[in-house]
TrEMBL record, chain A:
Matches recorded under Gene3D superfamilies: P-loop containing nucleotide triphosphate hydrolases
Subcellular location: Cell membrane
Name of the featured protein: ABC transporter ATP-binding protein
Main location: membrane
Entries under InterPro entries matching the protein: AAA+_ATPase, ABC_carbohydrate_import_ATPase, ABC_transporter-like_ATP-bd, ABC_transporter-like_CS, P-loop_NTPase
Annotated keywords: ATP-binding, Cell membrane, Membrane, Nucleotide-binding, Repeat, Translocase, Transport
Cellular component terms (Gene Ontology): plasma membrane
GO MF entry, a single one: ATP binding
Cross-referenced Pfam families: ABC_tran
Residues in ABC transporter domain copies: 3-239, 255-499
Membrane topology annotation: Peripheral membrane protein
Length: 506, 432
């Protein structure tokens, strides 16, 4: 089926998320929609899928104008979507999720689960998936959950399939498999829209590329275009894709972690007997697919996990079981994975957020009174130093873009005297321009002699920053390898395969 | 807290599946709670020893099959029970030490033993009508069960139904008035359901359409309905009580054969039609929630409304009509207070049953069957207090009045374990 969008416009208040977007996707074509976070790609697809109503423009399928009042209409017309945040009910089984919304029933109005199971099996076999129809979605790994999403769309005979940032949660191997599935679908005549901001994937799989920036289509590109060309189209200026850094000047071992184990509330060993150390002046990158224990490991380092055994020491000081306050006072800086949830108070101003973890005494508080003058000076200085684009220091942090929010977190954490800096997913949901800046600051922190831990699921980021790379899988360390380890080795390690012996000697 | 490792095998295969090794998290809560109750039983045996025998009457004179009375010597029995409780406590402690969870059946054994010991002690020197105790428990539980069904449906679809109390009260009021005026019980039932639906629709409109905090709307509705019914009661019903507030009652309908089964028969099957409808309602809600299209969509909306939306389910419409349905069920439950028992309407006669029903929903883990069992437990605790004060127990009645609530707190806090409520319960769904 041929999909055509003509002049789609969608505004949210004063923000124009989509400004007269034209897009044509032919059947049997993988059409990449490339753009930064906030470029309006997801909004466009939500309009296509009937989740949002467009303020202008029309949607055509096989040259017939469509009017979608809701996703039900879009699905009936043959549009399927694999959402970035899976639209699956975690407490339902695979079969229940697949049947939801177009349930078949037996006598007495009872659900016809056998039919749903058969459907799941049939589609799974067609594409070589291994999906158990009776498994609870909650208990499935993300890669499999994504397949359930694909099965869900295919079970409704989708002829246009939209993949919204599908690779964000996958290992490199899973990504390759997904690309294979997309090619298979394309060859069967499905029109595919592939939304992403990862250049490598685009060049690998796309038949055509449309680039969006700030709600507008800014150009088309061929899959043969170079990374630099695509990046500059996406950002609107030439972008530095590599981080300049010197060889590390290594100091003594600062952070020593021995036999650390973290147990979650249902008894899973999310971090399983982990030992490693970080020296002054080096960046240890922790790589791995989301959910393999990196989050819990960093939280354990700053005292945020309740069930921790093992030993953590920093510069010889025992930090095992210490309170968060004590750990912060020991000089640990922490950029949490989810800045909106754990890093910032959205309703507080920039100035307030900058002193969040320093409310216990001087210089921000004297005699139980906030030193507003000092705070304002401090905030102005940091806003300038970290290039936070904001109308004022009294702006609420929730109003800032992701990149500027992250700079506020970074400014707060780096403005203390640090003995250890832990940054989890420092550039997630951050625009390319800010990524350059954040990476530069992380390297500067290292060069000032602070041991740095960076957790990232993006191999590009790991490769750009790391002096050494520690790969985690199922809560364990697969291996610690040098920073220049090739991508495919890292990919295998992220799937749990231990590196060959020469790589381990880092 | 302590842990052991069950499976620490490394994972060399390059499967893209994240399966984490597991341990068992054990908790000392159960043994500690057991210890407290065991000590209490020993205290009764030592300091509160009461002479005489305790008689448990297992059938009432009207029953077809008469069971013999069970007579036990009070003081020695309490001692035996206390020792047995101590044994159970030690077993549970040993299990926790061995890194095992304390199983539910052990908790049930402990609870039954404790209750037997307590009843033996409290009724020393007199006889305890077990049929009356259980029958009364079920009766007191009827509005709670209807209310908890309404609560389960509401929360499962994503709307916290604090207004159960007002739906019960509105049902009780309209049932009494309509049945009194028309003389037709079934018209009273229908009127009660309509009243429940109307109250629920007010909740639904404010919670779903206007996104007002659901708990606040619910509480306001409860206060509003108390005010309205009290006003009409004193201004209209009292002056014309003979016409407007003299409801007929549903007579008991003993079911042949089933009603003759010892103990169970007289308790479960010599009830009114309202109770029989309740049995059907519990089964219907259970089957409906977990085995029909209606239930699948309802639960989807309460767990992940956006996901439901993306497969074409109208989230807010689903919520609205199911909250209305819950109102009908709660309204039906309200009839039990008036035409179900033949009592005239009185001010605030539901006396917080709606809130207890809500506790039963949580205690029952948002499951209609478990919520029913929880409601029965609360009914039992309430009726125990009635029965003991009738036979002249040494426990002050004020103390016994606390019992249902103490049971609630212990049950919810300690022994149930962690259960996840419907993920979107109480959260309005707003589309951009």
């Amino acid at each position: 089926m041929k999909l055509e969008l003509r002049g789609i416009t969608k505004t949210f208040g004063a923000l124009v998320a989509n400004d007269h977007i034209d897009l044509t996707v032919e059947p049997g074509e993988i059409h990449c929609l490339l753009g930064e976070n906030g470029a309006g790609k997801s909004t466009l697809m939500n309009v296509l899928y009937g989740l949002y109503q467009a303020d202008g423009g029309e949607i055509l399928l096989d040259d017939a104008v469509q009017h979608f009042a809701g996703p039900g209409d879009a699905m009936a017309a043959g549009i399927g979507m694999v959402h970035q945040h899976f639209m699956l009910i975690p407490v339902f089984t695979v079969a229940e999720n697949v049947m939801l919304g177009h349930e078949q029933t037996r006598a007495g109005g009872l659900l016809d689960l056998p039919a749903a199971r058969a459907k799941v099996k049939e589609i799974s076999e067609r594409f070589g998936f291994d999906v158990d129809p009776d498994a609870l979605v909650d208990e499935l790994p993300v890669g499999v959950q994504q397949r359930v999403e694909i099965i869900k769309a295919l079970s409704r005979d989708a002829r246009v399939l939209v993949f919204d940032e599908p690779t964000a949660v996958l290992t490199p191997q899973e990504t390759d498999e997904l690309m294979q599935i997309m090619r298979q679908l394309r060859d069967a005549g499905t029109a595919i829209v592939f939304i992403t901001h990862k250049l490598r994937e685009v060049r690998e799989v796309a038949d055509r590329i449309t680039v969006m920036r700030l709600g507008k289509v800014v150009g088309e590109a061929q899959p043969t275009a170079t990374n630099a060309e695509l990046a500059s189209l996406m950002v609107g200026r030439a972008v530095e894709l590599t981080v300049h850094k010197e060889e590390p000047t290594l100091g003594e071992e600062a952070l020593v972690v021995e036999n650390l184990t973290v147990v979650d509330h249902i008894g899973q060993l999310v971090v399983n007997d982990v030992s490693f150390s970080v020296r002054r002046g080096e960046i240890l990158a922790i790589a791995g697919v989301q959910g393999n224990g990196q989050t819990e490991l960093t939280e354990a380092l700053v005292g945020l996990q309740p069930r921790v055994t093992g030993r953590i020491s920093l510069d010889g000081r025992e930090l095992t079981g210490a309170s968060v306050r004590k750990i912060l006072d020991a000089g640990v800086g922490f950029v949490p994975e989810d800045r909106n949830e754990d890093g910032l108070v959205g309703e507080f101003t920039i100035a307030e957020n900058l002193m969040l973890d320093r409310s216990t005494g001087k210089p921000f508080v004297k005699a139980a009174t906030l030193q507003l003058g000092y705070r304002a000076d401090f905030a102005r200085e940091k806003v300038a130093e970290f290039d936070v684009r904001t109308p004022s220091i009294e702006t609420k942090v929730g109003r800032l873009s992701g990149g500027n929010q992250q700079k506020v977190v970074l400014a707060r954490e780096l403005s203390r005297d640090l003995t250890l800096f832990v940054a989890a997913q420092p550039t997630r949901g951050v625009d390319v321009g800010s990524i350059e800046f954040i990476h530069k600051r992380i390297v500067e922190t290292r060069d000032s002699g602070v041991p740095v831990i960076v957790v990232s699921t993006e191999l590009d980021e790991v490769a750009a920053l790391a002096d050494r790379i520690m790969v985690m899988y199922r809560g364990r360390i697969v291996g610690i390898v040098p920073g220049n380890t090739p991508r495919d080795v890292l990919g295998l390690m992220m799937a749990g395969e231990a590196p060959t012996s020469e790589g381990v000697a880092a | 807290m302590s842990t052991t490792t069950e499976n620490t095998a490394p994972a060399p295969t390059p499967a893209p599946v994240v399966v984490l090794a597991k341990t068992v998290i054990t908790s000392w809560k159960a043994p500690v709670a057991f210890l407290v109750f065991t000590l209490a039983m020993f205290a009764l045996a030592i300091f509160g020893a009461r002479p005489g025998d305790t008689t448990f009457r297992l059938s009432s004179p009207a029953d077809a099959i008469q069971l013999p009375e069970v007579v036990v010597p009070s003081a020695p029995t309490v001692w035996v029970v206390a020792i047995l409780l101590a044994v159970v406590t030690i077993v549970s402690a040993a299990m926790v030490r061995a890194q095992k969870r304390v199983p539910l059946w052990l908790i049930v054994i402990f609870a039954v033993l404790f209750m037997f010991g307590f009843l033996t002690w409290a009724a020393a020197g007199s006889s305890l009508p077990m049929i009356g105790l259980l029958f009364g428990s079920l009766s007191l539980a009827v509005p709670l069960i209807y209310g908890s069904l309404a609560g389960v449906i509401g929360e499962r679809v994503g709307v916290v139904n604090i207004a159960i109390e007002s739906q019960l009260l509105a049902g009780a009021f309209t049932a009494a008035v309509v049945a009194s005026v028309t003389g037709n019980l079934w018209l009273g039932v229908i009127a009660a359901m309509v009243a429940g639906v109307l109250v629920a629709m007010v909740l639904a409109v404010f919670a779903i359409r206007y996104l007002v905090d659901q708990v606040i709307v619910g509480v306001v509705l409860n206060v509003l309905v108390v005010g309205l019914t009290s006003f009409f009661y004193s201004q209209v019903l009292v002056p014309n009580a003979a016409v407007l507030n003299a409801p007929p009652r549903f007579e008991r309908l003993p079911i042949p054969l089933l009603g003759d089964i010892p103990i169970i028969g007289p308790v479960l099957f010599k009830q009114t039609i309202i109770v029989y409808i309740m049995y059907v309602a519990v089964a219907a809600v259970y089957v409906g929630l977990f085995h029909t299209k209606w239930g699948l969509r309802l639960r989807a909306v309460g767990e992940h409304p956006q996901a439901a939306d993306t497969v074409g389910i109208k989230v807010n419409k689903t919520r609205f009509w199911n909250v209305a349905l819950a109102g009908a069920i709660a309204g039906l439950g309200g009839t039990f207070f008036t035409i179900g028992t033949g009592i005239a309407f009185n001010k605030e006669m539901t006396a917080g049953a709606g809130y207890i029903a809500l506790a039963a929903v949580i205690f029952g883990q948002w499951d209609p069957i478990k919520a029913t069992l929880a409601a029965l437990l609360f009914g039992f605790a309430s009726n125990l207090q009635n029965t003991l004060s009738v036979i002249g127990s040494p426990v002050p009645s004020e103390f016994m009045l606390m019992l249902p609530y103490v049971v609630t707190i212990f049950a919810v806090a300690g022994l149930v374990g962690k259960v996840r409520p419907p993920a979107a319960s109480g959260k309005p769904y707003v589309k951009s």
